[in-house]
Design a protein that fits this description.
Blueprint lengths: L11 E5 L7 H13 L3 E4 L15 H13 L3 E6 L15 H6 L3 E4 L4 H9 L4 E3 L3 H7 L4 H11 L6 E4 L8 E11 H5 L17 E8 L3 H14 L5 E10 L10 H11 L7 E2 L13 E3 L2 E6 L4 E5 L1
Parallel strand pairs: 1-2, 1-3, 3-4, 4-5, 7-8, 8-9, 9-10
Antiparallel strand pairs: 5-11, 6-13, 7-12, 12-13
């Protein structure tokens, strides 16, 4: 995997809105934080509209913003303002050649998982991390923001997280390429050129998943697809992030309980599984490098995930 060059003070960060429309105050607030941290901010022409229905702008304008930001040699980070829906519209129009001509960091999560999948398919790592709302609300000294810019600026970007234990955890150790993101978004890319969830034969993958506003049964259906396809048994470890804005149903009190029950039903053992990982639609949303080689160690006392 190709790692983009580290960023430094004075570099330009471009803000794009490749999915749904975003509140101007989030973009303005995030821009102020980025400038406080010492970076030049370039808000791309259509990041704030004109909106096209629920989308930040038309498909053509959103694609043009992405391309213009990626082709600008001054830009070292492309920060997505928000998720929502719409990034999938851009995938087939972004070529390997333009991505590889000048690899740079893409930052975002949620619907941006589609762009992570596209960039990872080109062999470039990217950063699953907070976006404009987080920066605007929590400011420059937020620990997740600090971790994000430490990764972006390091000569050898790495992760090293020690997390609290969880009663659903399955102990064990595993190594592989860290891949994942929003489960609903990535499930709809299965069997496409941008399939991030299905390991190639002999490939080692550590999966991480999160979601928002998905009914428990809908998430279960996505997991059944991974199980029936055989992908689930090929993972060397699983990180279960936040599944927020979901109500209990007649079968399970929450999504985590459903996932734990199904993993037991399917006999997924000998593979480390960590629950309660702070990734997703929460204030504590730790940055994860998509495509990085990592080791996951889950014990009864703690969870440790780190770059190798």
């Amino acid at each position: 995997m190709i790692y983009p060059k580290p960023i430094k003070k004075g570099d330009t960060i471009a803000v794009i809105s490749p999915s749904s429309e975003v509140k101007p105050e989030y973009v303005g607030g995030a821009s102020a934080v980025l400038e406080e941290l010492g970076y030049v901010v370039r808000v791309m022409p259509s990041a704030l509209g004109p909106a096209d229905g629920s989308y930040a702008s038309s498909q053509e304008r959103r694609l043009a913003d992405f391309r213009e930001a990626w082709h600008d040699p001054r830009v070292r980070v492309v920060l997505c303002a928000r998720g929502g829906y719409g990034a999938v519209h851009l995938l087939q129009h972004i070529t390997y050649g333009e991505l590889l001509a000048d690899p740079k960091w893409l930052v975002g999560f949620s619907d941006i998982s589609a762009l992570h999948a596209r960039i990872n398919a080109a062999g470039i790592v990217s950063l699953h991390a907070p976006m404009a709302k987080h920066l605007a609300r929590l400011g420059a000294h937020d620990p997740c923001t600090y971790s994000m810019f430490k990764i972006l600026s390091d000569e050898k970007p790495c992760m090293d997280y020690t997390l609290m234990p969880h009663p659903y955890n399955i102990p064990g150790c595993g190594e592989g390429a860290l891949r994942g993101g929003n489960l609903a978004v990535l499930s709809h890319l299965l069997s496409t050129p941008y399939d991030l969830l299905t390991p190639d034969p002999g490939e080692n993958v550590i999966l991480f998943i999160e979601d928002v506003s998905e009914a428990i049964y809908a998430t279960e259906r996505m997991l059944w697809q991974l199980s029936l396809s055989g992908a689930l048994r090929r993972y060397k470890g699983i990180l279960v992030g936040s599944f927020t804005e979901t109500r209990a149903d007649k079968n399970f009190p929450d999504t985590a309980a459903m996932i734990r029950a199904r993993l037991s039903d399917w006999g997924v053992d000998g593979v480390p599984v960590a629950f309660g990982v702070p990734v997703g639609h929460t204030d504590h949303n730790i940055p994860l490098i998509e495509g990085a080689s990592v080791r996951l160690e889950v014990s009864t006392d703690s969870v440790h995930i780190y770059s190798i």
